[in-house]
Design brief:
The protein is of the alpha/beta class and 349 residues long. It contains 13 helices and 11 strands. A 7-stranded mixed sheet has the order 1-7-6-5-4-2-3, with helices on both faces. Strands 8-9-11-10 form a 4-stranded antiparallel sheet, with helices on one face. The structure holds 4'-deoxy-4'-aminopyridoxal-5'-phosphate.
Length: 349
């Protein structure tokens, strides 16, 4: 997509937006006596407003991901990025978005809160990417296409070539949510980001980095889109605590924990099919398994009574009979197995 076509996709009021300028935007020089932001002068550790541009954090993420800082947006979870994309690109009540189903539920919620029609296109057999149907669902008012790879809740990753093909052919912005990419053997799209002006890649520190409670989500995009996201967000969308703690956590290599989680997932995937109640364990490139069972409500209730909480996805279109089970610590996975063993024994009686 041409760069000027990209600008024409942006809502006119956002294209012409004059963003709020914070005290810290106006003065970014050496520390001195700050009497500009109506803060308290008493040091509580948090008496100053945080950097609205999150420059230190972006510099670190830039090195880690090999993406220039001008292409990075950091948000209050990737959920913030999802909402901002609707607000930037979709005129409420007029424009529409396209998404795969089943997938992450927030695409539909963000569409609904922004009064944007979401055209949901079912995945193909074995949860394959319905590329032609996604393109056929689009019209002149389609602004966003939401894809998720590895996909939640199905666990499969799509071929990067197929995702790039959609970025080439879709008439709007193509969002590829890579929340689970660190668990996957399939490469993500950051390496090809500069080939597609209309590609937005979402990642998060909530999964592989173990920081779900901190709320730090990432978007990688054309500098023009990253700039728009920065202009529309709340000025201080990331607290000082989140910026500081994220920066600290990014110094530690998450690889050993990722490897342990993946090993646990694969052990579960190998053992679960032995149970009579398990019909299918779907292959996973994420930190969870989608497991089809005979009676999902009964197994869910049994696990819950044992203090084990999984996600019952059996009412999600395309996921009949399915529970989604996150890979936990080795001992937690073992308890899950033991609880299913007990469930089967009680059902055989
Ligand atoms: N994308 C996907 C596919 C997810 O599954 C989730 C959380 N379950 C998110 C995004 C949200 O991530 P965050 O914690 O960064 O808001």
């Amino acid at each position: 997509m041409e760069r000027n076509r990209l600008e024409s996709l942006v809502r006119p009021n956002i294209r012409n937006l004059c963003p709020y300028s914070t005290a810290r935007d106006e003065y970014a020089g050496r520390p001195g006596i700050f009497l500009d932001a109506n803060e308290s002068p008493y040091d509580t550790g948090f008496n100053r407003y945080p950097d609205p541009r999150q420059q230190a954090l972006k510099a670190r993420i830039s090195v880690l991901k090999g993406v220039p800082a001008e292409r990075i947006f950091v948000g209050n979870g990737s959920d913030e990025a999802i909402d901002l994309l609707f607000r930037i690109f979709c005129v409420p009540g007029r424009d529409n978005a396209v998404a795969i189903v089943p997938s992450y539920g927030m695409y539909a919620v963000a569409a609904a809160t922004n009064d944007v029609a979401l055209r949901e296109v079912p995945l193909g057999a074995d949860f394959s990417l319905p590329a032609e149907a996604l393109l056929a669902a689009a019209d002149a008012d389609s602004r966003l296409l939401f894809l998720c790879s590895p996909n939640n809740p199905t666990g499969n990753a799509f071929a990067p070539e197929a995702l790039c093909g959609l970025a080439e052919r879709f008439p709007g912005i193509v969002v590829v949510d890579e929340a689970y990419i660190d668990f996957s053997r399939v490469p993500g799209l950051l390496g090809v980001l500069d080939r597609y002006h209309n590609l937005v890649v979402l990642q998060t520190l909530s999964k592989a980095w173990g920081l779900a409670g901190l709320r730090v989500g990432l978007a990688f995009a054309d500098p023009y889109i990253a700039r728009l996201m920065g202009a529309v967000k709340y000025p201080y969308n990331l607290s000082q605590a989140a910026q500081q703690l994220a920066l600290q956590a990014l110094e530690q290599d998450p690889a050993p924990r990722i490897a342990a989680i993946v090993a646990g997932r694969d052990r579960l995937a190998a053992r679960l099919p032995a149970f009579a109640c398990v019909r299918k364990v779907w292959p996973s490139e994420a930190n969870f398994l989608l497991v089809e069972v005979d009676d999902p409500d009964a197994l869910y209730a049994h696990l819950l009574a044992d203090g084990i909480i999984v996600r019952n996805r059996s009412r999600v279109p395309g996921c009949a009979g399915c529970l989604r089970i996150t890979a936990g610590l080795p001992e937690e996975n073992e308890q899950l197995i033991q609880s299913i063993e007990a469930y089967e024994k009680s059902h055989l009686r």
